[in-house]
Design brief:
Blueprint lengths: L9 H19 L1 H13 L4 H40 L2
Helix pairs in contact: 1-2, 1-3, 2-3
Length: about 90
């Protein structure tokens, strides 16, 4: 006899959480990684909560990556501006 299905694909939830855990730790920092890890650990007992943790890990990672890009572009612009000012 099998257990009743909860309507969630647990393996898919765990795979997505694992991917965002790795990406979170590499690109998004500790907070994003921990949120992804919590999503992975809660997938078996609480799949809805696991999806929420994974979603927040994804959001935090994307925000951090966008901030990295903006800082990089800003530093390039500042460097170009200061180089053009110092040549005059």
């Amino acid at each position: 006899m099998t257990a009743p299905s909860s309507g969630y694909d647990i393996e898919s939830i765990k795979k997505k959480a694992l991917i965002w855990t790795i990406v979170g730790f590499l690109c998004g920092g500790i907070i994003a990684g921990v949120l992804g890890l919590l999503g992975y650990l809660k997938a078996d007992q609480e799949p809805e909560t696991a999806q929420k943790f994974t979603k927040w890990a994804m959001i935090v990672t994307i925000i951090v990556i966008v901030l990295y890009v903006l800082i990089f572009i800003g530093s390039l612009a500042l460097g170009a501006f200061s180089a053009s000012v110092s040549t005059n």
